[in-house]
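Revision sheet: structure tokens.
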Amino acid sequence: MMFPMRIGSAGRVTALSYVCFLCLRTAVDGFVTNTAAFAPVVRPHSNGEQLILDTQRMPQQSLLEKREGCGRKSSWTVLNMATWSDGRAVKEYQDFLASGKQEIDVAEDGPCVIVTSSTEAGASPRYQGLINTLVALGMGNDVILETTSGQDLPETLGGQESYPIYMALPPFELKEFLRNGLPDQWKSRREDFCFFSGTRDYGCIEQDLKDCGMCRDETTQLLLGGFTVLDATNEYANVNMIDDCSVTLDTMDAQGSRKYAGESAACGKWSGAFQARLDRNAVRCKRGFYREWRRDMWERTIYDAVFNLIGSVRKIPTSLGDVAE
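Predicted:
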């Protein structure tokens, strides 16, 4: 996304407002939001196959809708109605309730496979840093495989037949590899694949995973940005140079625990293993179900996009702290 650099203050406001709206609209698409304002009612379609989601208005009326007057719905009301009309969100929520899960399964950390790119662009220092970081966070017994190596996955690793397979590929190579590059022996191990999102390097890969049928509750997804990534060009880089980037807030949650912002997050089968790998090195990482993780991922995506965009249109050097203020 590009905007002209020489635009007036009004142009900046218009451009930034539009970008913020797009980010917000994308983030809430598919979410079950504002449950106080709408009560979902699922009715079978006449053909007996599809489910139609209607929105039944609760007694209270949205303040935003009252302000608009003349029967005109506010943008936020329209967003909520569009959200409720997305049957995918309803299906995900129904599946979650049907699973009966109240707690997240925990898998211990151990040896893993780290899948790396074999292309010049994919093996650049920009992406090599994450690979070095994963190795440094491990216990010295991880296996690195390139996408074009032709090697099979180990039958066992650390005495275990199942182990994490971290897909440390750049986003522009991931989808093609999942669709056309997976060796036959790897296809039976899809449930052990672990994917990265977040930061300017890995961004949002949700649609790519959906296109490949790998965006499910059991899929392990890991949100970056909560810790520093080692400099791939520094031969002396080590685990002691990995810092926790999360910050504490001055407020408490409903359970009386301190709240944090900017921390890493994980969901899926191997979320516990990734959390343990970070926790062992004094880096915070929260685990949750996919629905919870997805909110964190979109929050991070909006932060990475909007904060950097606002800073980039200023003529003077601007830090993220300046944007926040």
